[in-house]
Amino acid sequence: MTDLPVWADWVISFFIILGASFAFIGSLGLLRLPDFMARLHAPTKNTTLGVGGVIIGSILYFSMTDGLSLHELLIAIFLFLTAPISAHLLAKAGLHLELELSENTRDFRTKPEQYSDKDD
Amino acid sequence: MNKLVPAPWWSLFLLAFWLLLQNKVSVGATLLGLVLAIIIPLYTLRARDYRTTLHHPLLGVQYFFILLGDIIVSNFNIAAIILRPRKNIKPALIEFPLAISGSVPITILASTISLTPGTISAELGRDGRSILIHALNVDDPEATIQQIKQRYERRLKEIFQC
C-alpha cells in the first residue's frame, strides 16, 4: 500500500462521505415520508447518488494506488438498470393491493380501470 | 445490420462489459471479448421478440448525460424534501399519455421517470397508451406532464423514431 498525497485523501474522503450521506438520507426518507408510495421515492433516487459517490471514491483510490481501475462502473450500470425496475414493481404491487395513501394525495386518474386488475 | 453482427450496439456493450469485468485492456482479453461479443448475440437473438433501431446514437449519448444531470438534481431535491418538516408535501397520482410506442422506448421512459426528480412510474395502462405516475410534490400536474414530454419523450421519439 502506497501513501497518497494529502489532496487525494481529501477528494476521496469527500466522495465517500457524500455517498454515505445520501445513502443515509435515503434510509431516513423510508422512516419520515408519509405513505408507501412516497417512501419508494427515497431509496430509488438516493441510492443512485449514494452508491455513485462511494464508487467514484473507490475508482479514484484504486486508480491512484494500483493503476487504472474501472470495474466499479459495472455496479453503477447494474444499479441504473435495476433500481427503477424494482421501484416500478413495488409501486405496482402497492397500487394493486390498494394500500392507503396519505390523505393529501390527489388522484388525477381519468381512467382508473386501465390500472386495475379487476375484470368488470 | 448483417448476418455476423446482427445487433452491433449489443455487441459493443458486451465487449465493453467484458473489458470492465477484466479490469484491464490486453490483447488476449480483447480477443476473447470480441469472440464473446459476436457469439452471444448470435445465440440469444432468437429469444428477442422486439426489434429496436437506434436512429440517432449521438442524441442517445446526449440523453444519457441529461439524465445523469437530472439524477443528481433529483437526489438533492428529494434529500431536501426528506429533511424538511413533514406534512407540507403534495403527492399526486397522474396519468401520463404516451406518444411513443415499442417496449424498449417505453421501458426507458418509465425508468427515466423513476430516476428523475419527484416522480415514479407505478403502472403501465392495460392498453399500453399511458403510464401512471406517482409524484411526490406537485402543484400543477399538467406542468409535470409537459415537462416530461418536452425533456425526455420528445428526445426518445427522435432517437428511436417510434
Automatic annotation (TrEMBL), chain A:
Keywords: Membrane, Transmembrane, Transmembrane helix. It comes from the Bacteria. GO terms for molecular function: sodium:proton antiporter activity. Coiled coil: none annotated. The keyword Transmembrane applies. The chain crosses the membrane at residues 12-34, 46-64, 70-91. This is Na+/H+ antiporter subunit G. It comes from Pseudidiomarina homiensis.
From TrEMBL, chain B:
InterPro entries: Cation_antiport_E. It comes from the Bacteria. The chain crosses the membrane at residues 61-83. One of its GO terms (molecular function) is monoatomic cation transmembrane transporter activity. It is found in: Cell membrane. It is a multi-pass membrane protein. Signal peptide: none annotated. Its main location: membrane. Keywords: Cell membrane, Membrane, Transmembrane, Transmembrane helix. GO terms for cellular component: plasma membrane. Belongs to the CPA3 antiporters (TC 2.A.63) subunit E family. This is Na+/H+ antiporter subunit E.
